[in-house]
Specification:
Blueprint lengths: L2 E2 L3 E2 L3 H20 L8 H23 L4 H27 L7 H13 L5 H12 L33 H9 L2 H14 L7 E2 L5 H25 L4 H23 L18 E2 L3 H7 L3 E2 L4 H7 L5 H6 L8 H14 L6 E2 L1 H14 L8
Helix pairs in contact: 1-13, 2-3, 3-4, 3-9, 6-14, 8-9
């Protein structure tokens, strides 16, 4: 259970009209196509496809039939497939947009997230109760707080080594999921305050499930490959590291350009507790899309490439985001509200420009 600070958005008539018109058009799209906003059969089939490939790769791993150099490919592929399951299945389930049943969503979310080694409950707490409420807001978004090695906001203290962060970040990114599973989760578990979250308390059940999940992860990826195959512990450890390297890059370069970009806005509350934009305009200003209306990108990135649609309609399944993104283009143009939809390559370049810019003293308005 957690409590968060009360932060207010500056509402205005134009924003109300914009978001009202947007919601109306999205409602029309869903109604005309007889969608309920949850995952379609195709979305569920896609999720099952990625999950089957992942479990099949794991089965091939523990069969012990491949020589060590060849099995490294399987480890690397598993890292990517695990993230694809997370992007296309777990994320929708976390927002209760995969199934109508919240219970089914919770079960699927916890099972699939456990395959990544990260604690589902803690991630949902940070993602929904912090990040989604106040993306890119200083001291209110858990995704940009508590990170001193890489400076991710103009409002954070700058260190001498940040000048080189655009250069060393790709090396650190290799260890992102490893650090998440074995360090960050444990740090967050014992925090009483994180970003906007206050008086954080976890139930005994969640604490038990936390440690149970970590034990399961070690058994699944370390113990079973060692005891069921002839691979040495050194070979298993090398494969395990490679899996984390590929999963880290798949996650980082699929998600991080959406907010950590020199095209995105970073904010802080004023003395009266207000942000300078309305809620809808804030979501638009702090998110950057890439290939948002493209079906192929949606198939791979599970809607993370259409982050504006996701932040404005988080309880609608990602499978609808290409269509919703086209509606956003139409309505935002009508109301003269900036919307950015670029290529993935441009989004990555934008991220590294952002890192380089924040590596030197930057004027704060």
């Amino acid at each position: 259970m957690s409590m968060h600070k009360t932060i207010k958005f500056h509402e205005d008539i134009k924003s109300d009209l914009f978001y009202g018109a947007l919601k109306h058009e999205v409602f029309v799209y869903l109604k005309v196509n007889m969608y309920d906003g949850f995952a379609t059969p195709f979305a569920l089939l896609k999720g099952a496809f990625y999950l089957t490939l992942f479990l099949g790769s794991y089965g091939l791993l523990i069969s012990g039939t491949l020589p060590f150099p060849n099995i490294l490919i399987i480890w690397g592929v598993m890292g990517i497939l695990g993230i694809l399951v997370g992007l296309n299945v777990s994320h929708d389930a976390a927002h209760n947009s995969l199934f109508k049943s919240k219970r089914f969503n919770r079960i699927v979310y916890h099972i699939t997230f456990s395959l990544l080694g990260a604690n589902a409950y803690l991630w949902q707490l940070r993602h929904i109760d912090s990040h989604h409420l106040f993306p890119n807001v200083d001291n209110c978004d858990a995704d940009i707080d508590d990170n001193s090695i890489i400076r991710l906001s103009i409002y954070k203290d700058i260190k001498w080594y940040h000048r080189f962060q655009w250069f060393y970040a790709p090396v650190l990114y290799l260890f992102y999921t490893l650090q998440w599973v074995f360090y960050k989760d444990f740090i967050i578990l014992f925090k009483k305050q994180l970003a906007n979250l206050r008086n954080i308390r976890h139930s005994p059940e969640e604490i038990f499930l936390f440690y149970l999940g970590k034990i399961f992860y070690l058994i699944f990826y370390i113990a079973l490959p060692m005891f069921l195959t002839s691979y040495s512990w050194e070979e298993v450890f090398i494969g395990f590291l490679l899996m984390h390297f590929t999963s880290s890059y798949a996650f980082i370069f699929g998600l991080i350009p959406s907010h950590f970009s020199d095209l995105a806005s970073f904010e802080r509350v004023d003395n009266d507790g207000y942000l300078k934009r309305s809620w809808a305009k804030h979501q638009m200003a702090t998110s950057v899309d890439y290939h948002a209306d493209q079906l192929w990108a949606n198939f791979i990135f599970g809607g993370f490439n259409a982050h504006v649609a996701h932040h404005l309609f988080p309880t609608i399944s990602h499978i609808h985001y290409p269509a919703i993104s086209k509606i956003i283009v139409e309505i935002s143009t009508k109301f003269n509200i900036p919307y950015r939809n670029i290529s993935w390559f441009e989004a990555i370049k934008s991220h590294f420009r952002f890192l380089k810019k924040l590596g030197v003293p930057y004027p704060v308005s």
